[in-house]
Amino acid sequence: MSVQLDTLNSAGGLLSLLDEEERELQYYGLAQLDLVTDRFWTEISDSISKIEILYEDETFEHRQLAALVASKIYFHLGEFDDALSFALGAGEQFSLKESSTYVQTIVNHAIDKYIELRAQQDTDSGLTIDKRLEAVVERMFERCFETKEYGQVVGISIEARRLDVLERALSSGDTKALLGYVQKDCVDLINSIHVQTQVLELLVKVHMQFQEPDYESICL
Asked: In a structure prediction context, what are the per-residue pLDDT tens digits for the chain, which is 220 residues long?
């Protein structure tokens, strides 16, 4: 079976494949729907329950693809919490290498949620964070390290109270420039005295790794 997506004027035929009993037809329908969500999201949204049922079916081999399609539809509907929830269910199918508005929006939403939960852990040590959410944030950090976007890593790691990632970023890029950026533009914005102290202690630690530490900067 082959569908000419460029000439397609409705997603109805693809949606009907989700009602088939053959798993391969269901998979084919999902795979094609994934390619046309930007064009037919309003039509697909009327059948979102079909996609969700496939995701919830643990015997369905392509559950992650179903989650990805559902996530994209909820994104277009402006339901970003649901879009993030299904993106987490999509696992590796949710690719951070894609530079679409959809991916950028979901990643930003994931980061905001992660930062919020990390802050809550200051007062609720028993709070646990969804491992899938942590995995997306970790993948985002790794992506930034690969592309040498150390400034972005520094800002997010401070907000997320991830001093391990902050230390790695400071050591990976132009350390002196990044130290200056953190001291001048980031420290005063930290609203937790405890976290601010931890960051300052880390900055001193990194400064002292130089053969000739900048004592003037350390004392600022």
From this structure: 555 666 678 889 999 999 999 999 999 999 999 999 999 999 999 999 999 999 999 999 999 999 999 999 999 999 999 999 999 999 999 999 888 999 999 999 999 999 999 999 888 888 999 999 999 999 999 999 999 999 899 999 998 999 999 989 888 877 778 887 787 766 777 777 888 888 888 888 877 775 555 545 544 4
CB 114 within 8 A of CB 133: yes
Other beta carbons less than 10 A from residue 188's beta carbon: 9
pTM given for the model: 0.85
| Closest listed residue to residue 33, CA positions, set 160, 211, 45 | 45
- At residue 56, the 3 state secondary structure works out as helix
Query: Is residue 73 classed exposed, middle or buried when 0-12, 13-18 and 19+ CB atoms within 10 A define those classes?
Result: buried
Give the list of residues 6+ apart from residue 179 with CB closer than 8 angstroms, or none.
Answer: 170, 203, 206, 207, 217
Q: How far apart are CA 109 and CA 86, in angstroms?
A: 13
Measure the N-to-C terminal CA separation of the chain; round to a whole number of Å: 68
